[in-house]
Amino acid sequence: MLFTMITQQEKHLPLYITGIGIQKDQESIVRPDGYPYYQWTYCSKGEGTFVVDGKEFKIAEGTGFFFSPKIPHKYYSTTQPWETYWINFEGSSIPSILELFGIHKWEVFIPSSIESALNQFDEMEDLLTQDDPEKVINTSLNLYSFLFTYKTSKKISTYQQTTNRLLQLKPVLLYMDENFNHSLSLDELSSLIHISSNHLCKLFKLTFGMTPFHYLIQMRIQNAKQLLIQSPELQINEIANRVGYTDFSYFCSIFKKQELMTPLAFRKMYGV
User: What is the DSSP string of 190-203?
Assistant: First the structure.
């Protein structure tokens, strides 16, 4: 564990390390008012829990968490030992750097390259133990490179939110899959999970980037494509009916808009 002494001149650096270390058995930390510095923490052994914004995240080996100053949080071990690597840092340019790299005020993550992250960590720790008057400046460059690498990490917090939405939408998705060839209304779909039509549209946009109506269109067109290839005995107007379109012209226009070709051209492309 190492805490650096920062001079007034060094405080003008865009970013600099204020502390770095490895906790062989991480103790419980409770900070209702947050922490003065930015902190990156990585779990190399065992398992713990990170609590922030009323959410709990399991921090197992190979995962980690990040938070900005003044963010209330706590973390504690759930198995022992819980070994963590951590870096505290500060700097006048950090807010703009984090924004540039797409790093939020707190995150839970899996490093894109664990070996690279730990090698960079070791290098910064080694530099700070040296008797070099420019060690803070030198590690400032390393820290920038480290954050650049970190920005490609998989963000579990975002992934988990998407997973939670998918679980909530599962009854709707199953119902649509079984009834895509029937006329479906927003009220009918939203009632399956006891939410409003507006809330359902919001969930679909957050999860799939589209409305339930456009999701249904894609589902119907995908099924139409399978029938066009796998059932050559079916006329195209029959296929339109089977996937939920009673208006043949409308089906053809929707198909062309999605696939940039007519159903007949699609069928011919596959030699059917």
Answer: HHTTT--HHHHHHH
Which domains are present in the chain?
2-152 (2.60.120.280), 159-269 (1.10.10.60)
- CB hemisphere CA count around 18 (13 angstroms): 15
43 by Cβ neighbours in 10 Å (0-12 / 13-18 / 19+) ranks as buried
Distance (Å, whole) CA 218 – CA 180: 10
Q: Name residue, tokens 């007519």.
A: 262
The per-residue pLDDT for range 25-36, each reduced to its tens digit, is 999 999 999 999
The string of pLDDT tens digits covering residues 184-231 is 999 999 999 999 999 999 999 888 788 999 999 988 998 899 899 888
**Tokens describing residue 202:** 């919001």
pTM attached to this predicted model: 0.59
Tens of pLDDT, residue by residue over 145-189, are 888 878 777 666 665 666 678 788 889 998 998 899 999 999 999
CA angle 105, 111, 115 (to 5 degrees): 140
CA atoms lying within 13 Å on the CB side of residue 44: 16
206-232 burial, b if ≥16 CB within 10 A, otherwise e?
Answer: ebbeeebeebbbebbbebbbebbeeee
How big is the CA angle at 206 (ends 152 and 43), to the nearest 5 degrees?
Answer: 35
